[in-house]
Specification:
By secondary structure, the chain is mainly α.
């Protein structure tokens, strides 16, 4: 209930007289006999505006004290603790609520979301299942979230099971249909994937995401097809607002893809350029000088003297495949994982997570952290993939971590992939990639990032001569048996020619190269040659890097 005193506080707040509003709140609280919740909410907002998070946490504690069963305050406090690098305290915050209200389905759901962000997949799944047990509304969404976790864990059977559970509750649940289509694409089962996308379009004829996936899955589409016509109509009629940028971007990349396949190259480049211009609006700007500065710091700090005093004894022998996107890394991983002792880990970003965990409190790494990173990495890998096979970690940006990898895992096998740099740049530019790859929306930024990659790779090759295996994509497709037998020898694995039948595998492929790796190795013309007039700006820049 509003009072003259509370209205005065609100007036001060709206007039941006923040300090006066804070003092007025504290005065009213000290006088007692007032409704405390709105005052603490105002104080909380003031503390957040001023980034005074110690006070924010204090006010959340007061609100939780007033309303010990109110989920909102626990959730917001836990999210703030996570933001402050204190996820364990955030977990304890949820546990405090669940100790009071163990059957609160929404609290279980929110806790599961929090646990997933922290990489605690098993606990997240357990709490999602408890939320269903306690009759949460919209259980199909919970099943969908469980399916997503299993998909990320490469547990295809359980992912399909829980997506299907969602459809048992609501057969028209589009997110589950879409994710099932994606799973079957990753498994190489194109017909089943297409069927799920068609089911979506029967329900939502203008679903642009499903239309776009159909374009990627159907390699025989003509430019006069219904799918292409619908995408073009959407592009021509849609209003370019921030709310629909993602959908427009997806449609533009799909149109670029089908025009590229039909060899209408100027139009293909037009659509890719438009898609990247939209993508550029959702990312943090790429700063070449900062990236070059990071390269300089890395090469100055990770030196042979550093390595000699930092390396630890460790018999663990992981395999890392790293390099630039679109450089043949998925192909290499697919061939390696044909060996019965090897399994594909995909782009799991686990090493960086272990590094960040070690840096959470000090912000820096010290030699004492190296052992804990190694132990944590091995433990998490075993948890995800078991201990029976060697896992190929294909987190491409691990090329920056090669020095640390060699220090903590001296016996690690490190494979870097490379390719004609113009083909790499064009292939990246023609792929709708995530916001973290902020160089990917402009050709000159991609070229700059590639050059920095080569500088870093040259540094590691000088530090560890003969210990890093370079796979050149062009050489791989020209002489696959020679390159692969050398690669397997480097990895202490026996080579068999049958491994070149990797494209027949029904293993999961989580990558932008989803359909390329379902094809046998074949020598193809350089893709960049089709776009010579459009890529002149980077051709000279890359001239010395072939």
């Amino acid at each position: 209930m509003e009072t003259p005193a509370l209205n005065k506080v609100i007036g001060l707040f709206r007039a941006n007289k923040l300090n006066e509003a804070k003092e007025a709140c504290l005065t009213l609280l000290s006088e007692g006999h007032v409704e405390k919740e709105p005052l603490y909410l105002i104080l909380l907002e003031l503390a957040n505006i001023q980034a005074d998070y110690t006070f924010s946490l204090n006010y959340y504690d007061h609100l939780i004290g007033l309303f010990p069963d109110e989920l909102t305050y626990y959730s917001e406090k836990a999210d703030l603790l996570r933001k402050l690098g204190k996820p364990k305290d955030g977990i304890e915050c949820y546990e405090q609520l669940l100790a009071r209200k163990p059957s609160n389905a929404n609290a279980r759901y929110n806790f599961a979301l929090f646990l997933k962000k922290e990489g605690q997949s098993e606990r997240a799944i357990a709490n999602y299942l408890r939320a269903i047990e306690f009759h949460i509304s919209e259980p199909q969404e919970v099943y969908l979230n469980i399916g997503v976790i299993y998909s990320e864990l490469h547990d295809t059977d359980n992912a399909i099971k829980y997506y299907s559970n969602a459809l048992t509750i609501n057969s028209h649940y589009v997110p589950a249909l879409y994710n099932l289509g994606g799973i079957y694409e990753e498994l190489g089962k194109k017909e089943i994937a297409v069927d799920y996308y068609m089911q979506i379009l029967a329900l939502e004829p203008s679903n642009i995401n499903a239309l776009s996936r159909l374009v990627y899955a159907k390699s025989d589409l003509s430019l006069e097809s219904e799918e292409v016509h619908k995408l073009k109509s959407y592009i021509d009629s849609a209003s370019y607002t921030f709310e629909n940028f993602d959908t427009l971007e997806t449609a533009l990349f799909a149109l670029g893809k089908v025009h590229d396949e039909r060899k209408v190259y100027p139009k293909a480049f037009y659509y890719y350029k438009k898609g990247n211009e939209l993508g550029d609006k959702r990312i943090i700007p790429y700063k070449p000088n900062e990236v070059s500065g990071e390269t300089k710091l890395l090469t100055e700090n990770f030196t042979k003297p550093w390595y000699q005093k930092s390396k630890i004894d460790n018999d663990f022998e992981p395999i890392f495949v790293c390099g630039m996107f679109r450089s043949g890394s998925t192909l290499v991983e697919s061939i390696l994982s044909e060996h019965p002792q090897i399994c594909s880990g995909g782009e799991i970003s686990l090493l960086n997570k272990c590094i960040n965990d070690a840096k959470k409190y000090s912000g820096l790494l010290s030699p004492s952290d190296y052992g804990s990173i190694a132990v944590n990495y091995k433990k998490q890998m075993s948890k995800l993939f078991g201990t029976r096979k060697v896992v190929v970690d294909k987190s491409l940006d691990n090329f920056k971590n090669i020095g640390l990898i060699k220090a903590i895992f001296p016996k690690a096998k490190i494979i870097c992939t490379d390719r004609n740099p113009l083909d790499i740049c064009v292939s990246i530019y023609f792929q709708q990639l995530g916001s973290s790859l902020n160089y990917s929306t402009k050709l000159h930024n991609i070229a700059h990032y590639y050059i920095e990659y080569k500088k870093i790779l040259k540094h590691w090759l000088q530090m560890f001569p003969g210990e890093i295996f370079i796979v050149n994509y062009e050489q791989l497709v020209e002489n696959p048996t020679d390159v692969c037998s050398s690669l397997f020898y480097y990895c202490d694995l026996e080579w068999r020619d049958i491994y070149l039948d990797f494209y027949k595998s029904d293993k999961l492929v989580k990558t932008a190269s989803i359909w390329q790796v379902r094809q046998p190795l074949q020598k193809l013309a350089s893709r960049s040659q089709n776009y010579k007039s459009q890529i002149r700006e980077i051709e000279k820049k890359l001239a010395g890097h072939y």
